Amino acid sequence: MTLTINDTTITSDHSAHAARHSPDRNGWEASWLPGQILDRNTAITAMTLADIVAEPDLHEGHRLWPHIQSWAEEVGLTAPDALSRACQPPERADPEAAG
Question: I want to staple 37 with a disulfide (CB 3.0 to 4.6 A). Which of 8, 27, 56, 57 is the partner?
Fold first, then answer.
């Protein structure tokens, strides 16, 4: 699993989701968290969660669960809610288009 991070986008090789910098909104927006403005570090965390849903059999006893809980808290969600949202396909290709 790999994230590609540059000045304006964060993408994953295991997820259709992306995060995009939105200068007019003064932050970042992840496609699976529409309307939520994030700082760059939190956008990376959001994309880490989007990427991790490709891991098979995620559950409360999974070895990554403590990390998932921590990452989910960083974006203001519970672990189950974050995984549920992140596994859904993106509603739109470009999060900035929601303007």
Answer: 27
Any idea what DSSP says for residue 89?
Answer: P
The answer to whether residues 93 and 29 touch, using CB atoms and an 8 Å cutoff, is no
Return the residue matching tokens 């672990």: 79
DSSP 8-38: SEEEESS-S-EEEEEGGGTEEEETTSTT--B
Domain limits, the chain: 3-98
Listed residue (96, 50, 49, 81) closest to 68, CA to CA:
49
Look up the pTM and report it.
0.86
The DSSP result for 60-74, as a single string, is TTSTTHHHHHHHHHH
Distance, in Å, from the CA atom of 68 to the CA atom of 75, rounded to the nearest integer, reads: 11
